[in-house]
Design goal:
about 375 residues; alpha+beta; 4-stranded antiparallel sheet; hydrolase; Peptidase_M20_dimer; Pept_M20_glutamate_carboxypep
Length: about 375
Protein backbone atom coordinates (compact mmCIF):
# COMPACT_ATOMS: atom_id res chain seq x y z
CA UNK A 1 0.00 0.00 0.00
CA UNK A 2 2.99 2.33 0.29
CA UNK A 3 3.02 3.13 -3.43
CA UNK A 4 -0.68 3.97 -3.29
CA UNK A 5 -0.20 6.25 -0.30
CA UNK A 6 2.76 7.99 -1.91
CA UNK A 7 0.74 8.61 -5.08
CA UNK A 8 -2.12 10.12 -3.07
CA UNK A 9 0.22 12.30 -1.02
CA UNK A 10 1.71 13.61 -4.26
CA UNK A 11 -1.80 14.56 -5.45
CA UNK A 12 -3.12 15.83 -2.11
CA UNK A 13 -3.49 19.43 -3.33
CA UNK A 14 -5.57 18.32 -6.32
CA UNK A 15 -7.72 16.08 -4.12
CA UNK A 16 -8.38 18.99 -1.78
CA UNK A 17 -9.23 21.21 -4.75
CA UNK A 18 -11.78 18.63 -5.92
CA UNK A 19 -13.31 18.49 -2.44
CA UNK A 20 -13.56 22.28 -2.39
CA UNK A 21 -15.29 22.32 -5.78
CA UNK A 22 -17.90 19.84 -4.61
CA UNK A 23 -18.48 21.64 -1.30
CA UNK A 24 -18.91 24.99 -3.04
CA UNK A 25 -21.66 23.42 -5.18
CA UNK A 26 -24.18 23.71 -2.32
CA UNK A 27 -26.91 21.09 -2.34
CA UNK A 28 -29.67 21.27 0.29
CA UNK A 29 -31.77 18.11 -0.01
CA UNK A 30 -35.07 19.79 -0.85
CA UNK A 31 -33.67 22.14 -3.49
CA UNK A 32 -33.69 19.95 -6.60
CA UNK A 33 -32.10 22.54 -8.86
CA UNK A 34 -29.17 23.05 -6.48
CA UNK A 35 -28.68 19.32 -5.89
CA UNK A 36 -28.65 18.68 -9.63
CA UNK A 37 -26.06 21.43 -10.13
CA UNK A 38 -23.92 19.70 -7.52
CA UNK A 39 -24.50 16.44 -9.37
CA UNK A 40 -23.09 18.03 -12.50
CA UNK A 41 -19.90 18.91 -10.61
CA UNK A 42 -19.71 15.32 -9.36
CA UNK A 43 -20.13 14.01 -12.90
CA UNK A 44 -17.30 16.26 -14.07
CA UNK A 45 -15.00 14.90 -11.36
CA UNK A 46 -15.76 11.29 -12.30
CA UNK A 47 -15.17 12.08 -15.96
CA UNK A 48 -11.90 13.94 -15.37
CA UNK A 49 -10.41 11.60 -12.76
CA UNK A 50 -11.70 8.20 -13.87
CA UNK A 51 -12.94 8.70 -17.43
CA UNK A 52 -16.44 7.37 -16.73
CA UNK A 53 -19.89 8.82 -17.32
CA UNK A 54 -22.98 8.70 -15.13
CA UNK A 55 -26.04 6.55 -15.51
CA UNK A 56 -28.72 8.93 -14.25
CA UNK A 57 -31.88 8.00 -12.36
CA UNK A 58 -34.05 11.06 -13.02
CA UNK A 59 -36.25 12.31 -10.19
CA UNK A 60 -39.09 14.83 -10.15
CA UNK A 61 -39.01 15.96 -6.53
CA UNK A 62 -35.44 15.21 -5.44
CA UNK A 63 -32.09 15.51 -7.18
CA UNK A 64 -31.22 12.93 -9.83
CA UNK A 65 -29.34 9.89 -8.50
CA UNK A 66 -26.05 9.00 -10.19
CA UNK A 67 -24.45 5.62 -10.86
CA UNK A 68 -20.88 5.24 -12.13
CA UNK A 69 -19.26 1.94 -13.13
CA UNK A 70 -15.50 1.43 -13.33
CA UNK A 71 -14.23 -1.83 -14.83
CA UNK A 72 -16.11 -4.88 -16.01
CA UNK A 73 -14.83 -7.72 -13.86
CA UNK A 74 -16.96 -10.25 -12.00
CA UNK A 75 -15.85 -9.10 -8.55
CA UNK A 76 -18.20 -6.23 -7.73
CA UNK A 77 -17.57 -3.64 -5.04
CA UNK A 78 -20.25 -1.04 -4.36
CA UNK A 79 -19.27 2.36 -2.98
CA UNK A 80 -22.13 4.31 -1.40
CA UNK A 81 -22.29 8.07 -1.03
CA UNK A 82 -24.72 10.97 -1.09
CA UNK A 83 -24.24 14.53 -2.27
CA UNK A 84 -27.18 16.30 -0.62
CA UNK A 85 -26.64 18.23 2.62
CA UNK A 86 -28.64 19.60 5.55
CA UNK A 87 -27.53 23.20 4.86
CA UNK A 88 -29.50 25.87 3.00
CA UNK A 89 -27.59 27.76 0.33
CA UNK A 90 -25.44 30.52 1.83
CA UNK A 91 -26.03 29.32 5.39
CA UNK A 92 -22.51 28.09 6.12
CA UNK A 93 -19.32 29.73 4.81
CA UNK A 94 -16.43 27.76 3.32
CA UNK A 95 -13.05 28.43 4.90
CA UNK A 96 -9.67 26.81 5.52
CA UNK A 97 -8.13 27.31 8.94
CA UNK A 98 -5.61 25.49 11.19
CA UNK A 99 -5.36 22.42 8.98
CA UNK A 100 -9.12 22.09 8.65
CA UNK A 101 -11.53 22.72 5.81
CA UNK A 102 -14.93 24.00 6.93
CA UNK A 103 -18.07 24.12 4.83
CA UNK A 104 -21.57 22.77 4.19
CA UNK A 105 -21.41 19.00 3.79
CA UNK A 106 -17.62 18.88 3.68
CA UNK A 107 -17.58 16.08 6.26
CA UNK A 108 -21.05 14.68 5.60
CA UNK A 109 -20.04 13.62 3.09
CA UNK A 110 -18.56 15.36 0.07
CA UNK A 111 -14.95 14.76 1.07
CA UNK A 112 -15.70 11.04 1.29
CA UNK A 113 -17.09 11.03 -2.25
CA UNK A 114 -13.97 12.69 -3.62
CA UNK A 115 -11.74 10.33 -1.63
CA UNK A 116 -13.60 7.39 -3.18
CA UNK A 117 -12.91 8.77 -6.66
CA UNK A 118 -9.23 9.19 -5.92
CA UNK A 119 -8.96 5.79 -4.25
CA UNK A 120 -10.16 4.23 -7.50
CA UNK A 121 -7.89 6.49 -9.54
CA UNK A 122 -4.86 5.41 -7.52
CA UNK A 123 -5.67 1.75 -8.21
CA UNK A 124 -6.30 2.53 -11.85
CA UNK A 125 -2.97 4.31 -12.21
CA UNK A 126 -1.17 1.34 -10.62
CA UNK A 127 -2.99 -1.22 -12.81
CA UNK A 128 -4.59 -2.92 -9.81
CA UNK A 129 -8.19 -3.17 -11.01
CA UNK A 130 -7.92 -6.27 -13.22
CA UNK A 131 -10.98 -8.48 -12.77
CA UNK A 132 -12.73 -5.94 -10.58
CA UNK A 133 -15.81 -3.80 -11.05
CA UNK A 134 -16.46 -0.81 -8.81
CA UNK A 135 -19.98 0.62 -8.80
CA UNK A 136 -20.42 4.06 -7.25
CA UNK A 137 -24.00 4.77 -6.16
CA UNK A 138 -24.48 8.46 -5.37
CA UNK A 139 -27.86 9.35 -3.94
CA UNK A 140 -29.40 12.80 -3.67
CA UNK A 141 -31.81 12.45 -0.74
CA UNK A 142 -30.00 10.63 2.08
CA UNK A 143 -30.37 13.48 4.55
CA UNK A 144 -34.16 13.24 4.36
CA UNK A 145 -34.27 9.46 4.72
CA UNK A 146 -33.55 8.33 1.12
CA UNK A 147 -37.26 8.24 0.16
CA UNK A 148 -36.61 8.08 -3.59
CA UNK A 149 -33.24 6.31 -3.59
CA UNK A 150 -33.53 3.40 -1.15
CA UNK A 151 -35.03 0.96 -3.68
CA UNK A 152 -32.63 2.18 -6.39
CA UNK A 153 -29.64 1.66 -4.10
CA UNK A 154 -30.76 -1.82 -3.10
CA UNK A 155 -31.40 -2.83 -6.70
CA UNK A 156 -27.94 -1.83 -7.91
CA UNK A 157 -26.14 -3.22 -4.84
CA UNK A 158 -27.36 -6.76 -5.44
CA UNK A 159 -24.58 -9.14 -6.38
CA UNK A 160 -21.85 -7.12 -4.67
CA UNK A 161 -19.18 -8.92 -2.68
CA UNK A 162 -18.80 -5.89 -0.41
CA UNK A 163 -20.21 -2.41 0.17
CA UNK A 164 -17.96 0.44 1.23
CA UNK A 165 -19.73 3.50 2.62
CA UNK A 166 -17.85 6.80 2.24
CA UNK A 167 -19.64 8.44 5.18
CA UNK A 168 -17.35 10.21 7.69
CA UNK A 169 -15.36 8.32 10.28
CA UNK A 170 -16.29 8.36 13.96
CA UNK A 171 -15.44 11.83 15.23
CA UNK A 172 -12.41 12.05 17.48
CA UNK A 173 -11.08 8.56 16.81
CA UNK A 174 -11.27 8.01 13.06
CA UNK A 175 -12.84 4.61 13.72
CA UNK A 176 -15.10 2.85 11.25
CA UNK A 177 -18.79 2.14 11.68
CA UNK A 178 -19.80 -1.52 11.82
CA UNK A 179 -23.34 -1.15 13.15
CA UNK A 180 -25.95 1.58 13.00
CA UNK A 181 -29.39 2.11 14.44
CA UNK A 182 -32.47 1.90 12.27
CA UNK A 183 -34.20 5.25 11.81
CA UNK A 184 -37.70 6.56 11.38
CA UNK A 185 -39.44 9.89 10.93
CA UNK A 186 -43.06 10.76 11.69
CA UNK A 187 -45.29 13.81 11.66
CA UNK A 188 -48.20 14.28 14.04
CA UNK A 189 -50.77 16.92 13.05
CA UNK A 190 -53.16 18.03 15.79
CA UNK A 191 -56.47 19.81 15.13
CA UNK A 192 -58.40 21.52 17.91
CA UNK A 193 -60.90 24.38 17.95
CA UNK A 194 -60.03 28.08 18.00
CA UNK A 195 -61.66 30.52 20.43
CA UNK A 196 -60.91 33.91 21.99
CA UNK A 197 -58.46 33.37 24.87
CA UNK A 198 -60.11 36.07 26.99
CA UNK A 199 -63.80 36.21 26.15
CA UNK A 200 -64.72 32.55 25.64
CA UNK A 201 -61.76 30.22 26.13
CA UNK A 202 -64.07 27.44 27.33
CA UNK A 203 -65.41 27.15 23.78
CA UNK A 204 -61.96 26.31 22.39
CA UNK A 205 -59.99 23.07 22.32
CA UNK A 206 -56.28 23.75 22.56
CA UNK A 207 -54.09 21.90 20.08
CA UNK A 208 -51.07 23.20 22.00
CA UNK A 209 -52.28 21.64 25.24
CA UNK A 210 -52.82 18.38 23.38
CA UNK A 211 -49.34 18.73 21.90
CA UNK A 212 -47.87 18.93 25.40
CA UNK A 213 -49.57 15.66 26.39
CA UNK A 214 -48.33 13.95 23.24
CA UNK A 215 -44.74 15.17 23.64
CA UNK A 216 -44.59 13.74 27.17
CA UNK A 217 -46.02 10.42 25.99
CA UNK A 218 -43.65 10.18 23.03
CA UNK A 219 -40.57 10.88 25.12
CA UNK A 220 -41.81 8.24 27.53
CA UNK A 221 -41.26 5.68 24.75
CA UNK A 222 -37.50 6.06 25.08
CA UNK A 223 -35.83 2.83 26.17
CA UNK A 224 -32.08 3.41 26.56
CA UNK A 225 -31.59 -0.11 27.86
CA UNK A 226 -32.77 -1.38 24.45
CA UNK A 227 -30.93 1.27 22.44
CA UNK A 228 -34.21 2.98 21.51
CA UNK A 229 -34.55 6.75 21.28
CA UNK A 230 -37.60 8.82 20.40
CA UNK A 231 -37.12 12.56 19.96
CA UNK A 232 -39.67 15.28 19.22
CA UNK A 233 -37.39 17.63 17.34
CA UNK A 234 -40.03 19.94 15.87
CA UNK A 235 -43.02 21.43 17.72
CA UNK A 236 -45.19 24.15 16.22
CA UNK A 237 -48.55 25.31 17.52
CA UNK A 238 -50.95 28.22 17.28
CA UNK A 239 -50.49 31.55 15.53
CA UNK A 240 -51.82 34.22 17.94
CA UNK A 241 -51.09 34.62 21.65
CA UNK A 242 -54.72 35.62 22.38
CA UNK A 243 -56.29 32.69 20.52
CA UNK A 244 -56.84 29.15 21.77
CA UNK A 245 -54.68 27.26 19.29
CA UNK A 246 -56.53 25.09 16.82
CA UNK A 247 -53.45 23.65 15.04
CA UNK A 248 -50.18 22.05 16.15
CA UNK A 249 -47.57 19.86 14.47
CA UNK A 250 -44.88 17.57 15.88
CA UNK A 251 -41.87 16.15 14.01
CA UNK A 252 -40.63 12.90 15.53
CA UNK A 253 -37.31 11.07 15.05
CA UNK A 254 -36.82 7.45 16.12
CA UNK A 255 -33.70 5.26 16.44
CA UNK A 256 -33.76 1.51 17.14
CA UNK A 257 -31.29 -1.38 17.26
CA UNK A 258 -33.70 -4.18 16.34
CA UNK A 259 -36.63 -4.87 14.05
CA UNK A 260 -38.68 -5.80 17.11
CA UNK A 261 -38.19 -2.34 18.57
CA UNK A 262 -38.95 -0.79 15.19
CA UNK A 263 -42.29 -2.59 15.14
CA UNK A 264 -43.07 -1.58 18.74
CA UNK A 265 -42.29 2.09 18.20
CA UNK A 266 -44.17 2.19 14.90
CA UNK A 267 -47.25 0.69 16.53
CA UNK A 268 -47.10 3.13 19.44
CA UNK A 269 -46.76 6.22 17.24
CA UNK A 270 -49.31 5.24 14.61
CA UNK A 271 -51.70 4.26 17.41
CA UNK A 272 -51.58 7.61 19.24
CA UNK A 273 -54.94 8.67 20.67
CA UNK A 274 -56.20 12.16 21.66
CA UNK A 275 -55.99 13.13 25.32
CA UNK A 276 -58.49 15.99 25.13
CA UNK A 277 -62.12 15.61 24.01
CA UNK A 278 -62.73 16.95 20.51
CA UNK A 279 -59.09 16.75 19.35
CA UNK A 280 -58.30 15.10 16.02
CA UNK A 281 -54.93 13.52 15.22
CA UNK A 282 -53.38 12.75 11.83
CA UNK A 283 -50.21 10.66 11.80
CA UNK A 284 -47.84 10.02 8.88
CA UNK A 285 -44.37 8.51 8.53
CA UNK A 286 -42.57 5.22 8.96
CA UNK A 287 -39.41 3.45 10.04
CA UNK A 288 -37.41 4.36 6.96
CA UNK A 289 -34.11 2.52 7.55
CA UNK A 290 -33.61 -0.95 9.05
CA UNK A 291 -30.91 -1.41 11.67
CA UNK A 292 -27.43 -2.19 10.35
CA UNK A 293 -26.08 -5.18 12.25
CA UNK A 294 -22.59 -6.62 12.14
CA UNK A 295 -22.44 -10.11 10.63
CA UNK A 296 -19.67 -12.68 10.42
CA UNK A 297 -18.94 -11.55 6.83
CA UNK A 298 -18.81 -7.88 7.79
CA UNK A 299 -16.49 -8.74 10.69
CA UNK A 300 -14.10 -10.24 8.13
CA UNK A 301 -14.32 -7.00 6.13
CA UNK A 302 -13.52 -5.01 9.26
CA UNK A 303 -10.49 -7.20 9.94
CA UNK A 304 -9.23 -6.47 6.41
CA UNK A 305 -9.68 -2.76 7.06
CA UNK A 306 -7.60 -3.04 10.23
CA UNK A 307 -4.87 -4.86 8.30
CA UNK A 308 -4.79 -2.26 5.51
CA UNK A 309 -4.71 0.58 8.05
CA UNK A 310 -1.76 -1.03 9.85
CA UNK A 311 0.13 -1.19 6.55
CA UNK A 312 -0.53 2.53 6.18
CA UNK A 313 0.75 3.29 9.67
CA UNK A 314 -2.39 3.86 11.71
CA UNK A 315 -5.02 1.92 13.66
CA UNK A 316 -8.78 1.70 13.26
CA UNK A 317 -11.47 -0.06 15.25
CA UNK A 318 -15.11 -0.80 14.52
CA UNK A 319 -17.80 1.09 16.39
CA UNK A 320 -21.58 0.93 16.67
CA UNK A 321 -23.20 4.37 16.24
CA UNK A 322 -26.65 5.89 16.56
CA UNK A 323 -27.00 7.58 13.19
CA UNK A 324 -28.31 5.80 10.11
CA UNK A 325 -26.94 5.78 6.56
CA UNK A 326 -27.63 4.18 3.20
CA UNK A 327 -25.40 1.35 4.40
CA UNK A 328 -28.36 0.21 6.50
CA UNK A 329 -30.15 -0.84 3.31
CA UNK A 330 -27.29 -2.89 1.89
CA UNK A 331 -26.55 -4.54 5.23
CA UNK A 332 -30.20 -5.59 5.38
CA UNK A 333 -29.67 -7.37 2.04
CA UNK A 334 -26.98 -9.49 3.68
CA UNK A 335 -24.09 -7.83 1.82
CA UNK A 336 -20.96 -7.26 3.93
CA UNK A 337 -21.05 -3.51 4.57
CA UNK A 338 -18.44 -1.28 6.19
CA UNK A 339 -19.22 2.35 6.98
CA UNK A 340 -17.26 5.41 8.09
CA UNK A 341 -14.58 5.10 5.40
CA UNK A 342 -14.74 8.77 4.44
CA UNK A 343 -13.05 11.81 5.92
CA UNK A 344 -12.02 12.46 9.50
CA UNK A 345 -13.21 15.57 11.29
CA UNK A 346 -16.09 16.74 13.44
CA UNK A 347 -19.30 18.73 13.43
CA UNK A 348 -21.70 16.65 11.36
CA UNK A 349 -24.87 18.78 10.97
CA UNK A 350 -23.23 21.48 13.12
CA UNK A 351 -21.95 24.92 12.21
CA UNK A 352 -18.34 23.87 12.89
CA UNK A 353 -18.50 20.99 10.38
CA UNK A 354 -14.99 20.36 9.09
CA UNK A 355 -12.49 17.79 7.85
CA UNK A 356 -8.87 17.23 8.86
CA UNK A 357 -6.85 17.95 5.74
CA UNK A 358 -3.73 16.02 6.79
CA UNK A 359 -5.67 12.74 7.03
CA UNK A 360 -6.98 12.81 3.46
CA UNK A 361 -4.23 10.75 1.73
CA UNK A 362 -4.16 7.95 4.33
CA UNK A 363 -7.94 7.66 4.54
CA UNK A 364 -8.14 7.58 0.75
CA UNK A 365 -5.48 4.86 0.66
CA UNK A 366 -7.48 2.84 3.19
CA UNK A 367 -10.47 2.88 0.87
CA UNK A 368 -8.23 1.95 -2.05
CA UNK A 369 -6.93 -1.06 -0.16
CA UNK A 370 -10.46 -2.28 0.49
CA UNK A 371 -11.51 -1.65 -3.11
CA UNK A 372 -8.53 -3.73 -4.19
CA UNK A 373 -9.91 -6.59 -2.16
CA UNK A 374 -6.78 -7.87 -0.47
CA UNK A 375 -4.24 -6.79 2.11
CA UNK A 376 -0.97 -8.41 1.12
CA UNK A 377 0.90 -5.12 1.37
CA UNK A 378 2.88 -5.54 -1.85
CA UNK A 379 1.93 -2.15 -3.27
Amino acid sequence: MKNILAYLEQHSDVILSDILALVEAESPSMNKAAVDRCGEVLQRLFAERLGIEAEMDVQEEYGNHLKFVLGSGNEKTVVLGHFDTVWDEGELPVRREDGRLYGPGVLDMKAGLVQAIWAARALQEHHLLAGKRIVFLCGSDEEVGSPSSSAWLSQHALGATQVLVAEPAVAGSGDLKVARKGTGQYQLSITGLAAHAGNNPEEGISAVQEMAHQVLFLHGLNAPERGTTVNVGIAHGGNRVNVVADKAVLGIDTRVTSEEEAERIHAEITGLQPRLPGIKLAISGEQSRPPMRQTTASQVLMQRAKSVAQQLGFEVEGRAVGGGSDGNFTAALGIPTLDGLGATGAGIHARHEHILIADIPARTALMAGLMRGDSDGTE
